[in-house]
Amino acid sequence: MVNARGISLSKIMLILGLLFLYLPMFVLIVYSFNASRLVSVWAGFSTHWYSALFQDQQILSAVWMSLKIAFYSASMAMCLGTLCAFVITRFKRMRRRTLLSGMITAPLVMPEVITGLSLLLLFVQLAELTGWPADRGMVTIWIAHTTFCSAYVAVVVSTRLQEVDRSIEEAAMDLGCTPLKTFFVVTLPVIAPALVSGWLLAFTLSLDDLVIASFVSGPGSTTLPMVVFSSVRMGVSPKINALATLIILTVSLVAFIAWYVMRRNEKRRRSGRLS
Amino acid sequence: MNRNPIPAPLMARVRTLLFHRRVLFGIPFAWLLLFFLLPFALILKISLTSAVMAIPPYEPVFRLAENTLSVVVNFGNYLFLLSDSLYVAAYWGSVKTAFISTIACLLIGYPMAYAMARAPKHWQLVLLLMVMLPSWTSFLIRVYAWMGILGNQGLLNSFLLWLGLIDEPLKMLNTNFAVILGITYAYLPFMVLPIFTNLVKLDLRLLEAASDLGCRSITTFWAITLPSSKAGILAGCMLVFIPAVGEFVIPELLGGPDTLMIGKVLWEEFFNNRDWPVASALAIVMLALLLVPIILFHRFQSREMSKNG
């Protein structure tokens, strides 16, 4: 009796928690189709704010800038994070391994204002000493994003690396594969799904970052979160609701595809085992 | 002595292998050293200078004039932080707000993670994706959503007025309540995730054994489930608490004039007052406050990252 009730209590909490997570986003989506500017008034269905969004040159160029930065940051973070995960999980007795693992886990929790400020000071000092970076912009944001995104990639990839069957790697090397070839032929195919999810995670993190980018950006490199932030500081804006709806729908679509692919692979693996 | 000397070609191969390892290790190490660790040393350095009207707006620590190198260290910024009650109040406000939000996340997130871990296997992935999905959309936009809900003419007030529960709008936006709600909302997925991964690994036979031995389910929960998910709870709390202390966006958008949080103060010192040395000193003190939680988190995370393998 008590058992059944205990479980249903946590189930109720799960449903309430999910409602709590999704209701505000649902409200944004509904009100992006509201003809009125006000949240409290429903003035009928309209797609006016979407056309206004697509005519806003400032938002469009910021979207393009953010997508470019996110693409480069995610790609670099994927390489750097994987390398980090690999050396931490495999090179157990390397000197300075503890320092490396400290530097890769700290960005996960480091308050953004601290990271942003510290990187800005670094770029200013570097510019003073070496003349590079002459002005701050896309490259400095790319470096900053790559650094903190690598930490997330390293976590995702290291979980997967621990599941890799080491005996297959050892067999490949016994049969004369070089370590490099072994990595590309044996290890990489196994951890590839983690690389994809790490890349996607890094991409969304970079796309979403406001604080760090604000510190290290310069004039002429305004990212989407900066435009959104300066607009919502003034209050609720229906154009931002429309933008939010597009973001939420895109992310949901990608998540759905990811779920579908994972489920299919799982099914295939199971049926493969049975036959 | 019967020790065979290692043949020279093998020795050479071992040496190249070790060299390759060092290069592989060196790339991420150098990157993080330059772009993560070194910047902290620079914050410390700048926090010991005094502000001037120049580009960059601080005085150099090392000065070379007439063949003498002089080192000028200024502790004034730290004394200034201590003497002005605004800063002390902001630190206290941040820690308090982050603490309350962390507890709220735990109280909501633990039962959620528990229900997810007990759900049938094919449901678990769907539920996990559903919990994490909001965190992959925009953080800024999720915080912004609450502005429309909590405002004086917002959805919640309109709804309560329509129900007749209140006669005039409640002031919810631009209060500390809104900040705590916003942090709880934004960080909830990061609490659920580590607790779920921890609970899902829990050996169900332990629970069966307990119930076979006549343990009531509530006792089982306190005696087995909760202690064995301790690591997940700790990780979740650190993932919420540490970034929440330095949070800027949420107090800026949902907080009011009386909301004092250190992330916001630092932002204003840097962007509005252009006082880089004071902003740096604020960051250093914040880091010192967060050092113990960060080390706790690191110990959990590095165990997770190199369990077997």
How would you characterize this protein structure?
With 275 residues, chain A is mainly α. Helices cover 80% and strands 0% of the residues of chain A. Chain A contains 11 helices and no strands. In chain A, α2 (48-55) crosses α11 (238-274), α3 (57-90) packs antiparallel against α4 (97-109) and α3 crosses α10. Chain B has a two-stranded antiparallel ribbon. Chain B contains 13 helices and 2 strands. Chain B is an all-alpha fold. The radius of gyration of chain B is 26 Å and the shape is flat. In chain B, α3 (85-118) runs parallel beside α7 (176-199) and α5 (139-150) crosses α7. Chain B starts with 7 loop residues before the first helix and ends with a helix. Helix content of chain B is 73%, strand content 3%. Chain B has a domain at 84-274: MetI-like (MetI-like fold). Chains A and B meet through α1, α3, α4, α5 and α6 of A and α1, α3, α4, α5 and α6 of B.
Quick overview:
Chain A has 275 residues and is mostly helical. Helices cover 80% and strands 0% of the residues of chain A.
CATH class division of the domain at 84-274 in chain B:
Mainly Alpha
Strand content of chain A: under 5%
The share of residues in helices of chain A is: over 70%
Task: Give the H and E element order of chain B.
Answer: HEEHHHHHHHHHHHH
**How many distinct beta strands of chain A?**
0
Number of helices of chain A: 11
Range of strand content of chain B: under 5%
Q: How are the secondary structure elements laid out?
A:
The complex is a heterodimer of chains A (275) and B (309).
Chain A: H1 2-31, H2 48-55, H3 57-90, H4 97-109, H5 112-130, H6 138-161, H7 166-174, H8 179-208, H9 211-216, H10 224-232, H11 238-274
Helix pairs in contact in A: 1-11, 2-11, 3-4, 3-6, 3-8, 3-10, 4-6, 6-8, 7-8
Chain B: H1 8-47, E1 62-65, E2 68-71, H2 76-83, H3 85-118, H4 121-136, H5 139-150, H6 155-163, H7 176-199, H8 204-212, H9 217-228, H10 230-245, H11 249-254, H12 262-272, H13 276-305
Antiparallel strand pairs in B: 1-2
